[in-house]
Write a structure and sequence with these properties.
Layout (H helix, E strand, L loop, with lengths): L8 H4 L9 H19 L6 H8 L3 H5 L5 H12 L17 H17 L3 H12 L4 H30 L5 H4 L2 H17 L6 H17 L1 H12 L3
Helix pairs in contact: 2-3, 2-5, 5-8, 6-10, 6-11, 7-10, 11-12
């Protein structure tokens, strides 16, 4: 009697799971978690939900993150991270205040407004703050405060090197961030960019920093406009 043909191992075995670099897999997990948290809410989302969304088993997910609290914290660090202040480096002092202001604005926009997930994460943060209060406070302590201290130090150093008089923006460095937060809140609440557009906002932001850091920049800019330059 003829024996039934057995399917080959190659035909019957499920496709092997593709091994990805850890940083790629972590990015996939965070993307999936952001979707799940946004759709279900933080409290209702489980690790299983996140694992299914990114195609990982529970064991595979726990190999990267110990809990959804850790995932939420990682989302804050990724999407609302401080700017990369060292790339490119601070312009030399000889370049003047306008070059310094442009560098600050470019770093802020690259770090926040040009990250699509920033608005979604900010909306999630506003909705879930009461449930993840400890995580938010930890993020503020480890990320926000050190970044503001670094920004304040850069402003003081720039003003001192140019012999500029103390100004409100040196004393209150959060003012440097305010236009960016305005743009983020506009997108978060109204669902669109500010009326002047991001390019217009960037330009006005640079002008604002120049005037607050060095009023002579406003005078020089006004003279240039009057002379048709």
């Amino acid at each position: 009697m003829q024996q039934p043909i057995q399917p080959s191992c190659a035909a019957s075995a499920p496709p092997a799971r593709r091994r990805l670099a850890p940083q790629v897999r972590v990015a996939q997990i965070l993307d999936a978690a952001l979707v799940e948290f946004s759709e279900r809410g933080f409290a209702a989302t489980t690790m299983d939900d996140i694992g299914r969304r990114c195609g990982l088993s529970k064991g595979g997910l726990y190999a990267h993150f110990a809990s959804k609290d850790v995932i939420f914290e990682a989302l804050l660090h990724r999407s609302l991270a401080p700017p990369e202040w060292q790339e490119p480096p601070v312009p030399p002092v000889e370049a003047g205040t306008r070059a310094f202001a442009q560098w600050l604005v470019d770093r802020l926009y690259a770090g926040l407004l040009e990250r699509p997930a920033a608005v979604v994460t900010l909306r999630l943060l506003a909705a879930e703050r009461g449930r993840v209060k400890d995580l938010v406070e930890l993020w503020e302590h480890n990320v926000v405060r050190p970044n503001m201290a670094l920004l304040a130090d850069m402003l003081r150093t720039h003003a001192a090197r140019l012999g500029l008089p103390p100004s409100v923006i040196v004393r209150e460095p959060w003012l440097v961030i305010a236009p960016v937060m305005y743009a983020l809140l506009t997108q978060m609440i109204l669902g669109h960019e500010p009326a002047m557009g991001l390019d217009g906002l960037r330009s006005s932001h640079v002008e604002l920093l120049c005037e607050l850091l060095d009023p002579r920049e406003r005078i020089a800019s006004g003279n240039a406009h009057q002379n048709g330059l």
